[in-house]
Amino acid sequence: MNLTARIHQIFSQITGQHLPACISALFILLFLLILNSIWLAFAGSHTPFALFIQIALVILVFISITYIALNNQKQLASNNQQQHKAQKILYNITTSVNAGRELKELLSIFCKKCYQELRAENASVWLITENDWLEYIAGAGIDPKIVSQPRRIKITQELASTLTGNQIIHENQHVTRLAEILQCDISDDSRSWYLPLHYQNRTLGVVRIKLNLQPLSNQQDLYELLSSLANQLSNAIEKARLDQESRRMIIMQERSMIANELHDSLAQTLASLRFQVRVLDETLQPTSEFQSIKGIEQVENSLDEAYSDLRELIAHCRTPIDKQGLMPAVEKLVSRLRKETGMYILLQKEWENSDLPPNLEMHIFRIVQEAMNNIRKHSQAQNVHLIFRCDEDGNHQILIENDGRGFETPTASDHPGKHVGLSIMQERANYLGGDLRIESEPDEGTRIELYFTYSSETDHDPLQRLSEIIS
């Protein structure tokens, strides 16, 4: 590098970092030029020297103005280039995110694109659950072994205030706790940026991005880029919620329509047949033979059972779980069975740590409902014990025991149409990612145990957990 280029580089650094000082120096030169002009008018014998200084000052002023103008133009071009780069990054990330259909997929794509486009060390998204937990949902650049188990933090008052009162958070002890949970290196957390997710004055969660290098040289451009990313992701989460709610309402409407059609058609027909058979039975009682009466009674019992099954199917089509959640629905089921059967049913609840989304609660309720209906129909039990347990690590256990007559547990050689209800219970347990165990012997009662661990890393849609917060 020659001397001229070296001087140009040094001067560029000085003017780039201290532009106000350069402008001040220019005003000083102009002031000196004015003073020298006055001196030149009265210089007398020193006129040549004063003229030389005048020319030198004019040249310096011209050079200063030219250089400041060029530097300003260069800075403007650099800013435009940085803004174009920021817009390109924002476009690449948002277009990829909009391609995601389900929230889990959407958030995973967001983290992956942030990791790539921003050349980050890692990126993660945390969402708020209805029980005031901030739970890890998706990430990129994080060891999969670390996030194989549920990662979440209880929202304290300080953390809630931090997330609510800020748009972009940089170096904050409350949110740094998120990095500790993911076992990330927090020794240099000054490179980490935390982006709270807000939608219409509601806090949905937070995004954590740890940068290797600044993707944009201008700090303000980086701030605006991250703010735009947070806003776009918040809108995408809300859109996913609305889409999911719309799909859920369509399914509920279809199920209700099927239930109504069954009630208005087949149920009415069966009810009419039951009445006709009962009238026929009463008419033939005085004159008919024993075998004929016995046959009619069997038909009557079959119709009663078919009608009862149809009523259960209609109730099954109508969603039994309202916004109050799983436990109120189970309590309502237990109360109804107590009145109908006279069985002693003990319900034991240790369910405070559970924060399951409604779609998983529905599968659990169906398993419990099928088990209780089987007890009512077949067991002849006097005592039933229901236990619901959930610990702080998300381990869920549901136990249903009765002292009825029991049955021989199904084997692989059984006919496919046999024990259909038990097969459906097993399929629901598989959907939960859990284990369903059925232990029974003739005259020894039955024990049904469902065990599963709820984790945000399962394939179930985590958006369900936002229902209470968002609504």
UniProtKB/TrEMBL annotation:
Stretches that traverse the bilayer: 21-43, 49-70
EC code(s) of this entry: 2.7.13.3
Reaction equation(s) it catalyzes: ATP + protein L-histidine = ADP + protein N-phospho-L-histidine
Boundaries of every Histidine kinase/HSP90-like ATPase domain copy: 359-456
Mitochondrion recorded as keyword: no
Matching Gene3D superfamilies: 1.20.5.1930, 3.30.450.40, Histidine kinase-like ATPase, C-terminal domain (3.30.565.10)
One Gene Ontology molecular-function label: ATP binding
Gene Ontology CC entries for this record: membrane
Zinc recorded as keyword: no
Pfam families: HATPase_c, HisKA_3
Xref: CDD domains: HATPase_UhpB-NarQ-NarX-like
Keywords from the named record: ATP-binding, Kinase, Membrane, Nucleotide-binding, Phosphoprotein, Transferase, Transmembrane, Transmembrane helix
UniProt-recorded name of the protein: histidine kinase
Organism: hydrothermal vent metagenome
Source organism phylogeny: unclassified sequences, metagenomes, ecological metagenomes
